[in-house]
Write a structure and sequence with these properties.
binds potassium ion; binds magnesium ion; about 0% strand; binds cytidine-5'-triphosphate; about 70% helix; mainly alpha
C-alpha cells in the first residue's frame, strides 16, 4: 500500500527529476541570458545555459518514453498502479522542471544571490512547481488524474530528500560545484 503509493508518486515525477541532473552533466556554453543584466545583476546567470536546458528537456522526455515501455512489467512486479506518460505530459514535466529551475534563478538574482548560492526550499522544490504547472497546462486531465493528493504529499516530502542526496553525490563525484 505505502510502497505502491511512494512508487507511483516517484515514478510519475521521474521525467521531472532527471532533467536537472542531466543539465548538470550537459551544462556549459552560452548562457540563456546572454550576459544581460537587470538592475546591475545578471538576469539568470551563467548557471542556466541553452545546452543544459535543451539536453535536460530531451533526456526527461526520452526517459518518459522508456518508462512507458517498462510500465507493464514494473507495475506487474510491484502489484501497484503506475502511470504512463502521454507525450504532452512528458514535455510538461521535463520542460516545466527546467523552467521552474530557471525561474528560481531569476528570483535568486533579484534577491542578490550569486550563482550557486543556496536558497533552501526554493532549490529543492522550484522544479517540482514548474513541472506540475506546465503539466497542468499541457495535459490537464492527465495531471489531475495522476497527481492525487496522497501522491502530491509524497512528492513534496520525498523530493527535497532525493534532490539533496543526488546533488551531494554529484558534488562528491566532482560533477557539481556545490553540494546543493
Ligand atoms: N545547468 C545548465 N542549464 C540549466 C540548468 C543547469 O547548464 N538550465 C548546469 C550549469 O552548469 C549549472 C549546473 O547545471 O551550474 C547546476 O545547476 P544549478 O544548481 O541549477 O545552477 P547554479 O550553478 O547553482 O546556478 P543558480 O544559482 O542560478 O541556481
Ligand atoms: Mg545550484
Ligand atoms: K537550482
Amino acid at each position: 500500500m505505502i510502497v505502491s503509493l511512494v512508487a507511483g508518486a516517484l515514478w510519475a515525477m521521474l521525467p521531472a527529476y532527471v532533467p536537472n541532473n542531466a543539465a548538470v552533466l550537459a551544462g556549459g556554453g552560452r548562457p540563456i541570458d546572454g550576459g544581460r543584466t537587470l538592475g546591475g545583476r545578471r538576469l539568470l546567470g551563467d548557471g542556466k545555459t541553452w545546452r543544459g536546458t535543451a539536453v535536460g528537456t530531451l533526456v526527461g522526455v526520452a526517459l518518459a518514453v522508456a518508462l512507458n515501455a517498462l510500465q507493464p512489467t514494473v507495475a506487474a512486479a510491484l502489484g501497484g498502479d503506475l502511470p504512463t506518460f502521454p507525450f504532452r505530459a512528458a514535455v510538461g514535466l521535463a520542460l516545466g522542471a527546467m523552467l521552474g529551475d530557471i525561474g528560481a534563478s531569476f528570483l535568486k538574482r533579484r534577491l542578490g544571490r550569486r550563482r550557486g548560492a543556496a536558497v533552501p526550499g526554493l532549490d529543492q522544490l522550484d522544479f517540482v512547481v514548474g513541472a506540475l504547472a506546465l503539466a497542468v497546462v499541457l495535459a490537464p486531465g492527465w495531471t489531475v488524474a495522476t497527481f492525487s493528493l496522497p501522491r502530491l504529499a509524497v512528492v513534496v516530502v520525498a523530493t527535497p530528500l532525493l534532490h539533496l542526496t543526488t546533488n551531494a553525490g554529484a558534488y562528491l563525484l566532482g560533477l557539481k560545484a556545490e553540494p546543493w
